[in-house]
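Please decode residue identities from the backbone states below.
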């Protein structure tokens, strides 16, 4: 689609300017504390060396109810994907710590 080529080129220029390794560092720092808080609340997440920071799953613990979590997430305007018995989280460079706090609050309330 030729109309999208200029937009794609600008996006690639911006990514090169930001540098992928800097984006990776940002996301790793962004999710580290929220992930620890979720683990302490009984959610199951892979260890850091077995998951990415920009895409990871949260499995429910014994005391969690998926339907209730969906309601809480919806009420908090948190957009995630549900994959079977897991919740897929995919933070990006547009997310900040407030967004991750909202996610944790919605899942732990």
């Amino acid at each position: 689609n030729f109309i999208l080529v200029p937009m794609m080129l600008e996006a690639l220029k911006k990514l090169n300017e930001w540098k992928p390794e800097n984006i990776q560092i940002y996301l790793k720092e962004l999710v580290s504390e929220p992930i620890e808080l979720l683990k302490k609340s009984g959610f199951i997440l892979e260890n850091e060396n077995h998951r990415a920071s920009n895409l990871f799953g949260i499995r429910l613990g014994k005391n969690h109810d998926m339907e209730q979590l969906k309601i809480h997430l919806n009420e908090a305007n948190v957009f995630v994907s549900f994959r079977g018995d897991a919740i897929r989280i995919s933070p990006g460079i547009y997310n900040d710590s407030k967004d991750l706090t909202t996610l944790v609050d919605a899942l732990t309330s």
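Observation: The chain has a mean pLDDT of 95.
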